[in-house]
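#onboarding

Welcome to the new folks! Below is a worked example of what a typical request in this channel looks like: someone posts a single protein sequence, and someone else replies with the predicted structure as tokens. Don't worry about understanding the tokens yet, we'll cover that in week two.

Example request:
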Amino acid sequence: RAAAVAAPVYLLASVIPPGGLFRERRFRDVGLYGDYGQALLDGRVPYRDFFVEYPPGGFLVFTPPALLPDGWYLHAFKVLMAFVGLATLVVVGLILARLGASPRRLYAAVLAVAAAPLVIGPVSLNTYDAFPALLVAASLAALLWRRDSLALALLAVAFAAKLYAAALVPLFAVWLWRTGRTLARPLAAFAVAALVLVGPFALLGWDGLVESVRAQAGRGLQIESLGAAVLLAAHRLGIYDAEVVRGSTAALTRDLGGALPDALAFATSVAQVAAVALALLLFLRARSSGERLTVATAATLAGFLVFARFISPQYLVWLVPIVPLV
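Example response:
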């Protein structure tokens, strides 16, 4: 019922921003998605025949809109992401229902998620980040509803679409261990789901797949990261001379060049790992409950994102279904 009430709010919020639903303007990487999807349908093998910047699971949403006639891809992709957003409202409601949330908390959280496109803007529908965000939220919901194998399988699909989901594997494994549930079958479900999605691409285009991962992992201190923001502010104040360079890898990015940005990139990566580890440690020390698992999930994702040395605005979509829960 909460999702049904929030659905019109979400659709309206998705129409209003530039590049929103039913609008012609193209933002971010949606055009690239269309090129990838069409290339796959034309018989070209991703990672072997052409470079792909994203993990293999992205083709689950890149390809279906490409089945439509020419000129339809942009609108079809936005509609697909809008359905993902509507499904997210339902999943958020399921999580809060399982936690025994009050009606006020339930409706407030679901409506906050519904209004998110107004705050985040065009990246909500013009990127595919809402897809792994939905899968991560669904994984958390499945854990709370004691569907452990399904939960880890969903997390594996999210991981195959965006690698950040792997940060939650230790937390979810600890939850299963602390609640006395079996670990073997859920972890096997994770491995099988990941293998099904990634395996064919690895077999047909191993070198290209490795190059794609290396291109992502090898990026420097991206200008939109926290560390770069500090240096760019120092540049504006005249106490540091920042140099913006094109990324050294095949991934499209703009980074800060120089010894100090490189050192800060390493330092923030260490802080990123430490933040995820701290969330896990605090969860281990606390009494086990669904509420604490939800808080730890939000903390893990926030810590992973805040200290990432490369970040794009659409990454904020990862937090949309989780942070309002707490």
